[in-house]
Specification:
This protein is an alpha/beta fold and 211 residues long. The protein is built from 4 helices and 8 strands; from the N terminus they run E-H-E-E-E-E-H-E-H-E-H-E. Helix 3 packs parallel to helix 4. The chain is globular and about 50 Å long.
């Protein structure tokens, strides 16, 4: 796609989990996670609406490896809703790691949506928790605001951005992922799988200079 997209009041930028724990030095650092902050700030200036999600886990969350005896981070366990990757403790409510990156233009955000605060369910997607039935309320918010297209950026491409993009398509939004405004964890080839599935599902991948 070589032409730039015209943005309107029906378009929203959705910034996924741009938090300290996902940046260098954080508990679950995404390589070069903080490098996207200047790109995201430029995008915020371009968009009529900008929203952010915030991972917001209570202590002892079931997705933490520390909550399971003899389990190490990045292993998996079966939970009531299916297979769950176990993570280092991260984005604990009220701690510095859960805070949005200090250089992110937070004043321009119309909504900060917290997710993952139910102790028994992890939440990758901005729209649904990992049981795929517990709604975050974001769909209703966007539809009430008459948003038709969502443009995703943030951390990490192959987890929370990916799950959010797939759910956005399912909820009927025209969905774009701004690749250079994301960074990936890439766990066992997860990035390539996520990119393929997003494209097959109708998500359009573009770069910030196309906006």
């Amino acid at each position: 796609m070589s032409h730039s997209l015209d943005l309107s009041s029906r378009d929203a930028l959705l910034i996924i989990d741009l938090q300290n724990d996902f940046c260098t030095g954080g508990a679950l650092a995404v390589p070069e996670g903080e490098a996207i902050v200047p790109v995201v700030n430029k995008l915020i200036e371009r968009f009529p609406h900008a929203l952010a999600t915030q991972d917001w886990h209570p202590e002892g969350h079931l997705s933490f490896a520390s909550s399971h005896e003899e389990q190490a981070p990045y292993g998996t366990v079966k939970l009531s809703y299916g297979e769950q990757v176990l993570w280092p403790d991260h984005c604990v409510q009220g701690e510095n790691g859960s805070t949005l990156h200090k250089d992110l233009n937070k004043n321009a955000l119309e909504l900060i949506l917290r997710k993952g605060f139910r102790k028994e369910i992890d939440s990758y997607s901005a729209f649904y928790e990992n049981d795929k039935t517990t709604s975050t309320g974001l769909t209703g918010y966007l539809k009430e605001r008459e948003i038709e297209r969502v443009f995703l950026c943030g951390l990490a491409t192959d987890f929370c951005v990916y799950y959010s993009a797939i759910d956005a398509i399912k909820q009927g939004f025209e969905t774009f992922v701004i690749a250079d405004a994301c960074r990936a964890i890439d766990l066992d080839g997860s990035l390539a799988k996520a990119m393929t599935h997003m494209r097959e599902s109708g998500v359009e991948i573009l770069s910030s200079d196309e906006l």
